C-alpha cells in the first residue's frame, strides 16, 4: 500500500510537495489557465491547515518552448486559490532555496523555481541514480518528508519524482490517491467496458488499443479524431489527400500498418467511423464513408451523425466507459458536435472515466460534465488505463 496524508504527522514538518501545474501561458509569460493549480488545492490546504511547512516543487514547459517560464505567477495564483500567502524563490536547490525553506514556519507555503530550469530534471534516471542528482542532494537536508501529488507527471522517472522519495519518507497527496484508487483498479470496473480513443496522439492510442484488447479489458474500442482517420485508411477507405498528408506530416504513416494488424486481430471489437464531417463552402458537410474521398483540400474534421448513432448504441449497453481524446477539431464550432455528443452519451453509463490532458481541456471548453472521474493526467492516465505501472 502507498502511504497517504492520513499517515503523515504534519505539524511542524517541512514537506516537499511535488505538484503538476504545467499550464497554458499567456503572451506576457504569466499563467493563462489555473485548472491544474486548482486540482492541488485540497492537498496543499490540508497540509497548511495541519501546520505543515510546505515547499512546492513543479515544472512548467520544456526547454526552448514559449511556455518555459518561471513559477512566480503560479505562486501568485496559488495565494489567491488557497486564501493564504504563498512565497516564491527563484531557485530550486541552491543556498538561496534552502535558506527560504529553512525560514518557513508552521502553516507557511513557498513555491520553488521551475525544476526543469535544471538539466537533470529533464532527464530520466532509475530512482537510485536520481537520488544522487544535485536537485535531490540540495533539498534532502531541508526536507523532513516528501508528498507526490503530481499524478500527471508520475509516468516520468525524473529526480523530483523518483529521487526524493528514495531518500525521504514519502506519501501520496490527495490527487495522487484519488487517481490511483480509480485508475489503478480499471480491471475491476463493471462490464461491458468500452474504450473511446480519439485525438491526435495516434501511437499512444494504438498502444492502448493493443493493450486493452490483448488483456481482455475492453469489450469494444470506438475510434474517432485522427485516430479514427488512421483506422479508416487502414480499412481501405480513401480519406483524400488533405487527411492523408496530415497523417504523413505527423510521422504517423507507419501507424496505419499497426492499425491494419489490430483490425486483423480484433476487428470485431473495434468500431470505425461511418461518416466524417468536412468544411465545404465554409460550412460543416457530412459524408458517409461510401461517398469518400472528399473534395480537394477537404479534411475529415469530425465524426458525423451516422457514427454518433452507431456509437451511442454501443455506449447504451456499457457499464464502464473510458474516454481519451476528442472526436474532432472541437476548437472550431463547426466540428464540436462529435466530441460534445459522444461525451454526453458516455455520461449516461454507470461508470465514466476521462483521461486527462487534451481531453479534460476539451470538456472544460465545451461545458460537458457528469463524469465519474476526470483524470488530471494524460500519459500517466494512459499507463494506468492499460494496467501498466507508473
Automatic annotation (TrEMBL):
Keyword Transferase: yes
GO biological process, one term: glycolytic process
InterPro entries, sorted: Phosphoglycerate_kinase (IPR001576), Phosphoglycerate_kinase_N (IPR015824), Phosphoglycerate_kinase_sf (IPR036043)
Binding site residues for substrate: 20-22, 59-62
GO molecular function, one term: phosphoglycerate kinase activity
Entry annotated with the keyword Cytoplasm: yes
Annotated residues for binding of (2R)-3-phosphoglycerate: 36, 116, 156
Compartmental location: Cytoplasm
Assigned EC number: 2.7.2.3
PANTHER family associated with the record: PHOSPHOGLYCERATE KINASE, PHOSPHOGLYCERATE KINASE 1, CHLOROPLASTIC-RELATED
Family membership noted in the UniProt record: Belongs to the phosphoglycerate kinase family.
Protein name (record): Phosphoglycerate kinase
Species name: Natrinema soli
